[in-house]
């Protein structure tokens, strides 16, 4: 009979230097702890000699999975192989803050997908440097926090955001067309826990107005890129990208309109994969295990 601290399904993600015996150690650990594998995926990066694995598992007994006890028991295995690892109940609802400026499409898409169960987020708050999108947050019953940002208030604004993150145990900050550049300090504090949607197919057309840059260049495809946020603008590890065809008959405004679909798709997939523990960092790149 499962109890509040036991799970019907859990996921272990790990990365470590590639040596013989990792998979054997992991699968042996699961057997020893009355667990059976339901999904498993791995990648051996020959370039970095790093190994990546994601294994999802269920209990073989009615007792369920005691996630806390499994974490304690797995520590010695992790230390033996020098693993970076995470073991979590798959039903865990990630606590997130969604940041936005004035463009509503990505925020609306995330809140709608979450409302119909396509995403499994606990949206703690919507934070914006403008008041405009409060009605949208109200519609979905999500708290809205307006934190204006000017050159003089930026440090205080970022400190207020970090206080919210810490006080409310926020696990992920989603920049859903938040048009302010985060400071180096804030990026360090949120490293690996902040995802941005950039409205171009990076590395092309970084910075502001990427659709106008793309139109001026005469591209035949436009796209969007979801990436982890780093201090270097638009340089963070890429999680997901989406593209669509455009043509000579379209003006820049049409690019902007068509681009919304790609931004929503790329961001939703990136957030889903991150919150399902499918994304691991590999230097300045990511490994996404499906
Ligand atoms: N440290 C980082 N902060 C942010 C990133 C990032 O990659 N690293 N991504 C941006 C989003 N973005 C592009 O995707 C972006 C946003 C804003 C700007 C910009 O030039 N902003 C101007 C102000 C614009 C305004 O007030 O409307 C500025 O901050 O001076 C460029 C790219 C989110 N933050």
UniProtKB/TrEMBL annotation:
Highest taxon, organism lineage: Bacteria
Listed EC numbers: 3.5.1.10
Catalytic activity: (6R)-10-formyltetrahydrofolate + H2O = (6S)-5,6,7,8-tetrahydrofolate + formate + H(+)
Sequence intervals crossing the membrane: none
One of the record's GO molecular function terms: formyltetrahydrofolate deformylase activity
Pathway connected to this protein: Purine metabolism; IMP biosynthesis via de novo pathway; formate from 10-formyl-5,6,7,8-tetrahydrofolate: step 1/1
Primary enzyme class: hydrolase
Catalytic site positions: 234
Domain ACT: 11-92
GO terms, biological process: 'de novo' IMP biosynthetic process; one-carbon metabolic process
Keywords, sorted A to Z: Hydrolase, One-carbon metabolism, Purine biosynthesis
PROSITE patterns xref list: ACT
Keyword Hydrolase included in the entry's annotation: yes
Pfam families given in the database record: Formyl_trans_N (PF00551)
Family recorded in the similarity comment: Belongs to the PurU family.
Cross-referenced PANTHER family: FORMYLTETRAHYDROFOLATE DEFORMYLASE, FORMYLTETRAHYDROFOLATE DEFORMYLASE 2, MITOCHONDRIAL
HAMAP family xref list: PurU
Biological role stated in the UniProt entry: Catalyzes the hydrolysis of 10-formyltetrahydrofolate (formyl-FH4) to formate and tetrahydrofolate (FH4).
Protein name: Formyltetrahydrofolate deformylase
Gene source species: Geodermatophilus sabuli
Gene expressing this chain: purU
